[in-house]
Amino acid sequence: MSSRQWLEVIFLLNATVLCVHQIDAAFWHEWNMFKIPGGNQINLLLNLPIIASVFMAFRHVVKQSQRMYLAHIYLVALGLLTLLLHTALFVTGYNEFLQPMSLLLITAAGVLSVTQLFLLWADMKSCRNPSNQVNKS
To answer: Which residue windows are transmembrane per the record (predicted)?
Structure first.
């Protein structure tokens, strides 16, 4: 598989993990932990543009558009933000998200985001270095 194909696979895995985490977040009533008024109704409204933007970002990745790198960075940021916010919740004493699958999803978001970032960096570096590209003439 090419590096771009690996990036596409990692993007899809990371996006899937983050979306499933949002399902888990609804189970744990995450809006209470972040003091978001309006309960699940506001939670759902907040998730609509976020999930839609992830789909739009994936479109840029699949099409390898000029915004492809930005799309990857966006998803990496969402994954790392998820890891950081939940780490802060754990440190401050919240005991939600301690089931094995909850922990696995949060950890996977972090690991996949870091992996995606390194693959992205390598792809960007190889595109800037003409000696790494195959001569097609």
So the answer is: 41-62, 69-91, 103-122
The number of domains in the chain is 1
Average of per-residue pLDDT across 44-67? 97
Q: Which residue range forms the structural domain that includes residue 34?
A: 3-127
Q: Is residue 134 part of a domain?
A: no
Query: What's the confidence (pLDDT) of residue 128?
Result: 78
Spell 99-131 as b/e; 16+ CB within 10 A means b: eeebeebbebbbebbebbbebbeebeeeeeeee
Contact 86, 9 (CB under 8 A): no
Q: What's the distance, Cα to Cα, between the start and end of the chain in Å?
A: 23
Residue 135: which pLDDT band, with cuts at 50, 70 and 90? Answer: very low
